[in-house]
Amino acid sequence: MGLSETIRVQVRFSEVDSIKMVWHGHYITYMEDAREAFGRKYGLEYMYIYDCGYLAPMFDIKMRYHQTATVDDILLVTITCRPAKGAKLVFDYEIRKEKDNALVFTAESTQLFTTHEGEFEPSCPSFLTEWKKRYSLE
Prior knowledge:
Radius of gyration: 16 Å
Strand order of the largest sheet: 1-4-5-6-3
Number of strands: 7
Number of helices: 3
Structural class: alpha+beta
Shape: elongated
Distance between the termini: 12 Å
Largest sheet: 5 strands, antiparallel
């Protein structure tokens, strides 16, 4: 099992569509909010990656919707860093309703690394190697 962080999100009126369901694109925002909280907790903030000379753009996202969420639902968004070899970050996500623990959404994302100039970095940056060793994620 990898490192995890859970955040709470209250669904806002502006996040639901005309049929009172959270619009699918907002789940990407919830995932991003969880990634930012994860980075703060474990020392892997986006600006730290940037200051080390790299960017970490999304390469792949897979999502599955299990149940709807609506206005004022409190969602628990859990992100878990999956151990992965090489120069990539792989995260699993699970979103559940706080009131009944119902599973709403699952996803996984993969981020690769580029230089500030946009060149793909196929080898593992030293900062990432050190970070993975610190948390036994190799």
